[in-house]
Amino acid sequence: MPITTVKDSQGNITKVVLVEASGAAVEVYLYGATITSWKAKGKERLFLSKQAILDGSKAIRGGIPIVFPQFGLGKLVQHGFARTSNWQLLGYKDQIDGAKAMFLLTENEHSLSMWPHKFRAVYTIRLDSDTLNLSLSITNTNTSAAGSFDFTTLLHTYFLTPSISEVAVHNLAGLSYTDKVAKLDNVVEKNDPVSLASNVDRVYHNAPEKINIDISKHEAVLLTKTNFKDIVLWNPWAELAKGMADFGDDEYKQMVCVETGTVGSPISLAPGQTWEGHTSIVLQ
Ligand SMILES: O=P(O)(O)OC[C@H]1O[C@H](O)[C@H](O)[C@@H](O)[C@@H]1O
Questions:
Q1: Residue 275 Cα distances to 13, 34, 57, 209, 228, angstroms
Q2: Over the stretch 222-276, which tens digit does the pLDDT of each residue have?
Q3: Residues with Cβ within 8 Å of residue 244, at least 6 apart in sequence
Q4: pLDDT, tens digit, for every residue of 122-179?
Q5: Distance, CA of 205 to CA of 264 (rounded, Å)
Q6: Tens digit of pLDDT for each residue in 208-226?
Q7: How far apart are the first and last CA of the chain?
Q8: Which atom of ligand 1 has the smallest separation from the CA of 236?
Q9: What is the ipTM score, two decimals?
Q10: How far is the CA of 144 from the centre of ligand 1 (A)?
Q11: 234 touches ligand 1 (CB under 6 Å)
């Protein structure tokens, strides 16, 4: 079976497990369409906090939450409502190039309470032996001519590492970034690779399509992106970790967030228009 579903006591699907021929697997909660596990070549590749709340009462701490329609703080709740909304399983396919599942979110009471727009978000997860392919499409389904909307969006990927001291993020040198810790704009990255040894929270603008990440001394991933302009690099480090109820005090040592998104300047969609972004994570 390429796909199995986990249901609650009322028979509603809460989680989908997608398995590909090689044994690679992803687990996806319908809450947020959040991927909480990606196993490939026999190992877990994503960080999920031991303290993550998985009952749908809070955004899931780890895996790959979807940020939409607002990155960070703003008029809406932090990172928007997509990660705290119940998505639907649209369908799945077992095909030659991998197992695939599609998830759907449209406007609902939760979204309309903070954002007065009709939209159709489709998230497609395709899995093959060494790659996780993620596509997000957003359609503006407002009907009135005045119904354009702006949004920012991002796939907030938490990579699992045996030690943050071994993480190195390549291909960022020369880029201009916003340093959200120092509250500085237009900082130019001088390091190649970038390593992390304190609280890091940066938006690298107009990043290249391919980013190589050393996850440990012996393992690397290639992160590619199309139509996602920016890269966010985040690790809360020790002090912020202590203040997070759904994150262990020492767990910052086991994770790094390298996030693909368009967050520096918003995407505008007129009624009827669709935007689509893709990310793939390939084990090297
Ligand atoms: O705690 P959360 O709302 O999940 O946000 C976690 C982090 O997400 C991004 O990486 C932001 O750049 C950070 O500023 C934020 O702290």
A1: 28, 20, 29, 17, 10
A2: 999 999 999 999 999 999 999 999 999 999 999 999 999 999 999 999 999 999 9
A3: 61, 236
A4: 999 999 999 999 999 999 999 876 699 999 999 999 999 999 999 999 999 999 999 9
A5: 7
A6: 999 999 999 999 999 999 9
A7: 27
A8: 16
A9: 0.98
A10: 34
A11: yes
Three-class secondary structure of residue 18 per DSSP: strand
Question: Whose CA is closest to atom 10 on ligand 1?
Answer: 234
> What domains, with CATH codes, occur in the chain?
3-283 (2.70.98.10)
Return the SS3 of 82. helix
> Residue written as tokens 């966010």?
232
Q: Which residue has the tokens 């903070």?
A: 114
Q: Which two tokens stand for residue 95?
A: 């095909």
> Which residues are 100's β-sheet partners?
93, 126
218 tagged catalytic: no
Of the candidates 253, 168, 257, 259, which has an alpha carbon nearest to the alpha carbon of residue 214? 168
* Active-site annotation holds for 156: yes
pTM over 0.95? The answer is: yes
Q: Ligand 1 pocket, 66 CB below 6 A?
A: no
CA atoms within 13 A on the CB side of 209: 5
